[in-house]
Amino acid sequence: MYSWTLITGDTPVTTDARLFRQSLGSFPTGVCLVTTVAEDGKSEGMTINSFSSVSLDPPLILWSIRDDARSAGVFLSARHFVISVLSCEQGRVAEHFARPAPDKFAGWERHFDGGLGACPRLRQAAATFECRTYSRHQEGDHTILLGLVESHHRSDAAPLVLHMGKMGSLVDLAKSFAIQNSGG
Fold first, then answer.
1. Rounded CA gap, 146 and 61, in Å?
2. Distance from CA of residue 57 to its chain's centroid?
3. Which of 22, 90, 85 has the alpha carbon at shortest distance from 53?
4. What is the rounded distance in angstroms from the CA atom of residue 92 to the CA atom of residue 98?
5. E strand or H helix at 180
6. Complete domains list, the chain, with CATH
7. Which of 79, 90, 114, 179 has its CA 20 to 30 A from that of 108?
């Protein structure tokens, strides 16, 4: 696979990571949970907002993981993963799986059933994509994982959205943004 830096010879410009993250937060995005299973059978999961569609034919999606994430090795070697687009009612799930824990699924088992490759599949998500790992591309401090979608499902649930460091429904975030910008 080709890296833009390798093609152009451009040297990345360093930037203040905090300010860069704040600028990225200006783009409202959905919140997802990605899950997989390690070779030893242990379930892994993490909250992400790096989900995107790539192709309809074949059906491909992508997400990215920071290379120094605790569970990066498991996700990078996994043959399958499941991405659940969280509903606006699943904010607690997002918060829980965003924090480090020895076993993130302890106490949360009832929220999942078995998906492709035995990956945990979150019940009551706004949408679910069960994927076979298609390719991996290391760029900067993250690796982009592409998944071939083998099964998908959607519900009528409203999605959980992240904007400017706040999570909520589209309505909740719009109200918060309106209040913040009206000075009240």
1. 6
2. 22
3. 85
4. 10
5. helix 170-182
6. 27-182 (2.30.110.10)
7. 79
Please return the burial class of 122, using the count of CB atoms within 10 Å of its CB with bins 0-12, 13-18 and 19+.
buried
What's the pTM value of the predicted model, to 2 decimals? 0.86
Structure tokens at 7: 């093609």
- The end-to-end CA distance of the chain, in Å, is 50
Q: How many CB atoms lie within 10 A of CB 2?
A: 7
pLDDT at 16 over 80: no
Cα 37 to Cα 179: distance, rounded to the nearest angstrom: 43
User: What are the C-alpha distances in Å from 116 to residues 37, 113, 151?
Assistant: 10, 10, 8
**Tokens 């490759």 belong to which residue?**
117
pLDDT tens-digit profile of 76-85? 999 999 999 9
pLDDT tens figures, 154-165:
999 999 999 888
Please report which residue ranges of 35-158 form alpha helices under DSSP H: 72-77, 91-98
148 residue type, one letter? L
Question: Do 130 and 79 contact (CB within 8 A), yes or no?
Answer: no
Instruction: Show the tokens assigned to 11.
Output: 């040297």
Measured CA to CA, the distance from residue 9 to residue 180 in angstroms comes to 43
Q: Give the DSSP H/E element, type plus range, for residue 122.
A: strand 120-122
- Give backbone dihedrals phi and psi of 63, rounded to 5 degrees, phi first: -155, 165
Pairing of strands 52-56, 43-48: unpaired
Residue 115 has pLDDT above 70, yes or no: yes
